Amino acid sequence: MTDSHGFPWGSNQPTRRQRLLLALGIAVCVGLNLYITQEKYDSTRSDFSLIWFGARALLNGADPYRLVGPGLVFDSQWTSLYPATAYVVGIPFAALPERWASIAFVSASSFLLAYGITRHSWHLLPIFPSVPFIFSAQVAQWSILATAAIFIPWIAAVAAAKPQSFIPILAGSRTRTPIIVAAIGSLILFGLSLLLLPSWPWEWLDLARHADHVRPHVLRLGGVSILLVLLKWRRPEAWIVAAMAVMPQTWYPYNTLPLLALANTYREACVLSLLASGGAYLTGIFFGGLPPVEAAAAGGQMAIATGYLPATIMILRRSNVAEPPAAVRTFRRALRLTRQSERTSH
Questions:
Q1: Most buried of 29, 222, 318, 328 (most Cβ within 10 A)?
Q2: Could you give phi then psi for residue 64, rounded to 5 degrees?
Q3: Cβ atoms of 162 and 186 closer than 8 Å
């Protein structure tokens, strides 16, 4: 028997104990997988390694923006595009060895995601065998934590660490709590980052201007069609999709992970997971060997076709009957007060 969430078997009323056990199991599996992968390839490097390195650099009075890049202390194909606020968030992990810092971060993020998405139902479990999640876990990316913030408001306290991932989540928030938490957390992180490295905003902006492989999906071929989702402007999930489309992003599969969390039924979750996974798999096969800028273009188009557009179609099939996001309600209230004030003054 299925319920309104379309879960196909058993009870669909998760208890807190079940959620905790599931989240713990997923966190252990994710951490173990990352450890085995790094052992197999004799590597300690992950995306979080840059955060770990930057945190250590700040604590030692060094400038990570001058130490990251091809042939530099942190040898990387790319320069650092993270704001220094991300390095501040990484400070609690700085005492750990590089490998264990990445394992701790991705395990904690996965625990929070698993616990958050099962608050009311099991129907979002197809997220976990998807390529966007598996890829995110293997490279210890922030997308897992950003997706968890859809369900656990206090995670928004670290929104300033990766604004382009968290702003869409805040745009679709049903309550003001995540926005307030994000504002307070951002002020704290920004203040601490300036104390540790006063020059970072200018250095970061200069590097970001030259990042040709990072661009909004809405600017790619067919990307503007994603904004049709705003025809359902009362639905919070429509704003998440639209805001994701206008944020500068890389083409990697982990950036589509939040889209998979917008399904209302188990069937929708399976379809979104399969399409996004298929697109990511095909991208790796056919475009993975291309030069960076060409790979970014091809991968971006695939992300639109197999990630963004399916999510857009899914939301367009829903009725435009819902309480708008908190940010939209606040804007409409401010607009109404402005009009009333103008009428009064005349």
A1: 328
A2: -60, -25
A3: no
What Cα–Cα distance (Å) separates residue 99 from each residue in 51, 52, 141, 343?
12, 10, 14, 62
Q: How far apart (Å, rounded) are the C-alpha atoms in residues 241 and 50?
A: 28
Give the predicted TM-score (pTM) of the model. 0.92
3-state SS assignment for residue 48:
helix
Token readout for 153 is 């408001």
Q: Amino acid letter at 307?
A: G
- The pLDDT of residue 7 is 57
Cα–Cα distances in angstroms (integers) from residue 254 to residues 119, 249, 315, in the given order: 23, 10, 21
Residue 341 token pair: 């004030």
Residue type present at position 199: S
Which CA distances in Å does 239 have to 125, 148, 158, 168, 254? 23, 17, 20, 7, 19
C-alpha dihedral (26, 30, 33, 39), degrees to nearest 10: -140
Residues 6+ apart with CB under 8 A from 345: none
| Count of Cβ atoms closer than 10 Å to residue 48 Cβ | 24
Tokens of 72: 């530099």
Q: Measured in whole angstroms, how far is the alpha carbon of residue 63 from the centre of its chain?
A: 26
Q: What are phi and psi of 74, to 5 degrees?
A: -100, 95
